[in-house]
Amino acid sequence: MISRIDLRGDALPEGGALRDLLPRAEFDVEAALEKVRPICEDVHHRGTAALIEYAQKFDGVTLEQVRVPVEALKTALDELDPAVRAALEESIRRARIVHREQRRTEHTTQVVPGGTVTEKWVPVERVGLYAPGGRSVYPSSVVMNVVPAQEAGVESIALASPPQKEHGGLPHPTILAACALLGVDEVYAVGGAQAVAMFAYGTSGPDGCPPANMVTGPGNIWVAAAKRYFTGRIGIDTEAGPTEIAVLADSTADPVHVAADLISQAEHDPLAAAVLVTDSAELADAVEKELEPQVAATKHVEDRIKPALAGKQSAIVLVDSLEDGLKVVDAYGAEHLEIQTADAAAWAARVRNAGAIFVGPWAPVSLGDYCAGSNHVLPTGGCACHSSGLSVQSFLRGIHIVDYTRDALAEVTHHVVTLAEAEDLPAHGAALKARFGWKVPTP
Questions:
Q1: Active-site residue 99, yes or no?
Q2: Which of 186, 336, 376, 411 does the annotation list as catalytic?
Q3: Which of 56, 147, 309, 429 qualifies as a cystine partner to 95, CB 3.0-4.6 A?
């Protein structure tokens, strides 16, 4: 059901050589880019008409408008299962607790007497958030995108999610209910690359969508390709690829827990990655044995879980020691990394590359997906070595405010002029000389 990679016996290679030995899903955004380019430009030129046409082509629904009526949001919330509503409200409450603490404050540094630099944090003006609607419905992704944007102080928030044929061309009602709970009433029944294009270019008309400064949220390869296409025109969070879990475990780990956690990620998508890194061959055997009955007892077996576990992106990786295991998980840079070892907190503290780290047997990834308070929009495909998950900071821009008096400028002018001339940019120095009668002040 799942393959093995045996890295025992020899010294582990370094850097890219080690990464090349590890399992990873194929996710060719560059190839997809050429296919989404005409869709994006069609939306640019034809606006809402193109969005309606693509809803028919890709989603099989006929729309008269793409903007979701506010009444539909209210109805979705009124008809939401009370237990689901309570769970969403708790997820929102916990996410607000964590993300509110991330808000940065203005700070002024006195560099010299009379010379200060202030860094202030300003939220982007408008964001477009994407909630996928393919194999599953993800109201949790609505929470994870909206809450940090709201806590950052973003004034204008819009959300897009694919239209659903079984729901009369509207996004899934649980998505709409989550929007209503969060106070987001600008919602569009638009999916895929065309949703990103709508946010990037904007559309006109009675149900038009003003352009956004930034687009965030997970999606399929077409959404990722559209994000790449518009990078530079808009800000993005990340080009999210297939979801992934890595578990670093030793002989103290419970194979029932480990198997359940691997399966929990595999049920997302046939390209989802489930990786166990362990120095215990006995644990590897027990987990592999445990996978069989647990997979048989759940849903989405043939179309998602079995292909995901059997795919080249999933494996049990055997290492000589936890030290080697740490090197492997750092090279892998998992979206979600569980540490199920003795003294798990100490090992977790040493991890450098992971989107989010889950410590010990009582912090499974599923907790983070919904109700830990952390954010589940995380870097995939090894991008955790240079990128972070979604947070309040994602929606803030740091701006430096430079304030110098005449005396403070005079004191440093000779250094500025010297550096400007060293770079053969004499006009830079002249901009200061002009303020002092074209003479360099004596320090």
A1: no
A2: 336
A3: 147
CA torsion 153-224-371-164 (nearest 10°) is 100
Q: Is residue 219 pLDDT above 90, yes or no?
A: no
Q: Rounded to whole angstroms, how far apart are CA atoms 396 and 21?
A: 37
Provide the Cα torsion 20, 21, 23, 26; round to 10°. Answer: 30
Question: Of 263, 276, 334, nearest to 304 (Cα)?
Answer: 263
Dist CA 161 CA 194 (whole Å): 11
| Averaged confidence pLDDT in the chain | 96
In angstroms, the CA 62 to CA 203 distance is: 19
Three-class SS state of 112: strand
Q: 267 catalytic, yes or no? A: no
State the pLDDT at residue 135: 67
Q: Are 105 and 220 in contact (CB under 8 A)?
A: no
Alpha-carbon span 293 to 364, nearest angstrom: 20
Give residue for tokens 């009668």.
437
Phi/psi-derived region of residue 40, left when phi > 0, alpha when psi is between -120 and 50, beta in every other case? alpha
Sheet strands side by side (includes 273-278): 4-6, 315-318, 273-278, 244-249, 334-340, 354-359
CB distance 280 to 288 below 8 Å: no
pLDDT at 57 over 70: yes
Least confident segment among 19-33, 47-61, 337-351: 19-33
335, 338, 376, 411: the catalytic one is: 335
**Distance between CA 385 and CA 137 in Å, rounded?**
29
User: In degrees rounded to 5, what are phi and psi of residue 397?
Assistant: -120, 130
Instruction: Identify the pLDDT of residue 422.
Output: 98
To the nearest 10 degrees (0 to 180), the angle between helices 281-296 and 255-266 is: 50
**Which helix (H) or strand (E) covers residue 123, if one does?**
strand 115-123
What is the mean pLDDT of the segment spanning 338-355? 98
Where on the phi/psi map is residue 143: left (φ > 0), alpha (ψ -120 to 50), or beta?
alpha
